[in-house]
Amino acid sequence: LKTPLKQAATSQLVLTERQSDCQPLTTPPKPKETPPADPWTPTSNLKMLISAASPEIRSREQRRQLSDSSSEVLQTKHCLREHILGDEYEKSQPSRKEKSLGLLCHKFLARYPDYPSPSQKSYICLDEVTEELHVERRRIYDIVNVLESLHMVSRLARNRYVWHGRHNLPQTLQALKKVGEENKYIQQIQMIKKREYEHEFDPDGERNEEMASSFGSSEQSEMSFVELPGVEFRAASVNGRKYKSLRVMSQKFVMLFLVSTPQIVSLEVAAKILIGEDQLEDLDKSKFKTKIRRLYDIANVLSSLKLIKKVHVTEERGRKPAFKWTGPEVLPNTQDTKLEATSTTCSPPISESISSKEQCSKALFPSKGKQNFTRHSSLIKLVKSIENDRRKIQSAPTSPVKISASTYQSLPVFPNTIAQFPAITKHQLEGQSKTAEEMQMKCALSSPEAVPKPEPSQQPALSQPLGVCPSSHSSVSPVILPHPQSGVSYAIYLHPSQAHTVTTYSPGFMLQPLPCANVTGIKSNNAKVLSKITTEEGDTQRGTEEPTKSLAAEERPETKSETSSQRCLKRSQALPENNLIKRRKSDEESLDTPSTFFPSGYLIPLTHCTHGNKAECSSKEKAGVCSLQHTAYSSPITGVIPMPASELKTVNIPAFHITPLNIMLSPNSIAAAPVLSNSCLNSSSTSSAPNPSSSALNFMLQHIGLIPAGVQVPANPVLQHVPVSSQSENIGHSSGSTNVQEGKPSAPKEPQEPQAVTENFFRTPGGPNTEPSLSANSDGTQRISQGTLYIPQRKLEVSEN
DNA sequence: TCCTCCCGCCAAGCA
DNA sequence: TGCTTGGCGGGAGGA
Question: What ranges does the record list as Basic and acidic residues composition bias (predicted)?
Fold first, then answer.
């Protein structure tokens, strides 16, 4: 059957050749000979497509055709082709990347289903595979060995394997995790890092000896292949080579991820641990290099399995390759008691649902006993500073807000303040319809747990890391700004001195009970911020960025399941206008009703509990807390100011992590900070007050001693025009504090969450005590030069690039 | 220059 | 003995 495409079947190359011989406008003559290839069938079409797609196949075909001497003409044509395309041919040779083990592994995996039917065993014949994939046998062994380590395949006989797919993977990972914990890989990793730091300052120290002794005591040398019951291990070389095999290395490598928190392992550390278990005395360079080579081999396969992802850890000594676990979470307990991983206090379950409390406490109280930060002193300083401000405000004639004494007194203690919100709200909502009031109350009081009760165990986590949230200073109580798109809430600490400038600018603001989830949000934020500062090297990653990232990338609870508070807000917003007017009127008439407060101040991104982790969220959900989320702002002084989500969309504080000792301001963050205020002020353009965000920023910077009292840090008008995208909460893209870079830098990236990982102190690019540079503005004020401000601390960054 | 890792030698071990 | 398996390190491509 002749198809119309037959002529088109002639390769473009041939057409080109022929056309070059003919007049430009003449129709190319039909080739005299039909190519000796297969008749034009779907199969041949497929072959041609494959050939076109694969240079390797193409060149093979070319070689095969070249060797075919049956057709002189064809040979001539090929010679011509070779002649014309000599360089092209060279270029068409597969590049290294096309021959990479990762790609090969992809091809290999594509041959088999992830979850094969148990009834139908698929067998792997190495000969077939090597033939079909056009690779050396040797390469297949590399892949198969790693797959074998995960019990995705098992060896049946010579040249023959069984494909299990991912059925065994959960079990295997559990087993590996358990073994990893038993082998105290966490301690080993920590020890290696400790040695590294010590080595920085004492390069001639007895590093190896110490390492040797430490490893010697860890009883690691006997570790062998971890088997699963029912999955028989029949390696070809069962004895001597078994313990050095790629299988075992692969398993150990995986263990390192499974026991680490966060699950990021640098190649260097992995290699050292693997070497350490073999022969520590051979900790020479060549051995190390070899291990690294093998780890790359393993990592390529694991990457193809989407179990890990390449990242980079940036340290003082430069960027280090590392890998991050992206595989399935490993839950500690399953039916299989034999494989049940022991829950240890030092190693929480490897899952997305690691308790943030745990994370937080780990971050707060690192077991190593190293002093990771000195937050307290500065916290106290800040508290005093804020107290002073409060005093000033209270005594100032232009005290911004009239607050009824009872209300005010109810505010100073932060948790209690929040506890008062429902009551405050109720009071404020008196003017509203009964329905609305009921809704509000329902939102606020949907659960007795909604009223925050400071738990002893959580109290330190709440007050310590937040720092800027002193419990006894209501004037800077946080306004919590949810950011529905980023999934990160922002706590606004309102400078009291600004409140008066905006008390009349409250049109349209409604009162909303403070979602108690926000209290949790603060906690989550604490955990997040804190872990960024306190935890060690790349290993902080998991606990901090994973939940946020995963949620940012995928489902966001608040978008997926609209919270009751959101519904409340929507309902409230839908209230008849007379209610709004009534409310507004009420606001204007009586400033002692704490209803008009301007969301201005410095913003601190908060991680929602729902973002923090699922476990916590689920536990909170039981108490009805998680359902209350981010549609309202609490007024720092008197109550809560809700804001429509549309307003929130303009809020973007991508990299604004503030703690008493840590401020990282990316250009974007400085730029973005005013956006909120502007958006809020749009309707009140008569304001002659300074840009609240700018002022707030100044206030904050002055408070934390970054700038002297007279210095102003204006909101950069240029940067304000920077479009604020919904994804720009990702601080990685342009900030100097970019921490995460994908493995494929050129590829368009999905939004990534910051993965700032901070060690015991921050790294300072410009020296150990680089101060933020101040430059004079035309108006005589000074501004902080754009870029990241580094507090003299050492910082470690993780990048996925 | 360093990172990454392909490539293939060659030895161990098996049928 | 031939074949399979896989440790190992040189060195090339790429960043």
Answer: 539-561
Is residue A260 one of the residues assigned to a domain? yes
Nucleotide nearest to A99 (CA to C1'): B6
pTM, two decimals, is 0.42
Protein residues contacting strand B, judged by Cβ under 7 Å: A 96, 99-102, 136, 138-139, 157-158, 236-241, 267, 289, 292-293, 296-297, 299-300, 310, 312, 318, 321
Range of the domain at A265: 101-198+241-325
Kindly calculate the radius of gyration of chain A based on its CA atoms and give it in whole angstroms: 32
pLDDT at residue A321 is higher than 70: yes
Task: Report CA(A291)–C1'(B9) in Å, whole number.
Answer: 18
- CA–CA distance, A172 with A149 (Å, rounded to integer): 9
User: Which nucleotide minimizes the distance between its C1' and the CA of A246?
Assistant: C6
Q: What would the pLDDT profile of A741-788 be if each residue is shown by its tens digit?
A: 444 333 333 333 333 333 222 232 333 333 333 333 333 333 333 332
List the A208 CA – C7 C1' distance (angstroms): 25
Query: Straight-line distance from CA A299 to C1' B4, in Å?
Result: 11
> Quick check: is A441 in a domain?
no
Contact A506/A595 with Cβ under 8 angstroms?
Answer: yes
Residue A706 confidence (pLDDT) above 70: no
For chain A, what's the residue count?
801
Which region among A179-193, A639-653, A710-724 has the lowest average model confidence (pLDDT)? A639-653
Residue A191 CA, distance from chain mean position: 26
- List chain C nucleotides near protein: any atom < 7 Å from a Cβ: 4-11, 13-15
Distance of A159 CA from B10 C1′ (whole Å): 20
Q: How far is the CA of A432 from the C1' of C4 (A)?
A: 83
The CA-CA-CA angle for residues A358, A363, A367, to 5°, reads 90
Position A325 scores a pLDDT of: 92
Is residue A126 assigned to a domain? yes
> What percent of chain A has a predicted confidence (pLDDT) above 90?
6
**Which residue's CA lies closest to nucleotide C8 at its C1' atom?**
A290
d(CA A29, CA A39): 20
Answer yes or no: are the C-beta atoms of A271 and A282 closer than 8 Å: no
Q: Is residue A119 part of a domain?
A: yes
- Total structural domains within chain A: 1
Q: Are A483 and A490 in contact (CB under 8 A)?
A: yes
Task: For residue A244, name the pLDDT band (cuts at 50, 70, 90).
Answer: low
Give the type of residue at A126: L
Q: Straight-line distance from CA A99 to C1' B6, in Å?
A: 8
Q: Which two tokens stand for residue A635?
A: 């007024």
Residue A242: nearest nucleotide (C-alpha to C1'): C6
- A775 phi and psi angles, rounded to 5 deg: -125, 150
Q: What is the pLDDT of residues A57-93, one digit of tens each?
A: 444 444 444 344 333 433 444 444 444 455 555 556 6
Distance in angstroms (rounded) separating the CA atoms of residues A637 and A69 = 91
A551 or A280, which is more confident:
A280
Q: How far apart are the first and last CA of chain A?
A: 52
Please give the protein residue whose CA is closest to the C1' of the nucleotide C15.
A745
Q: How far is the CA of A535 from the C1' of B2 (A)?
A: 29
State yes or no: pLDDT of A231 exceeds 90: no
For residues A157 and A588, the model is more confident at A157
Mean of pLDDT values over A538-561: 32
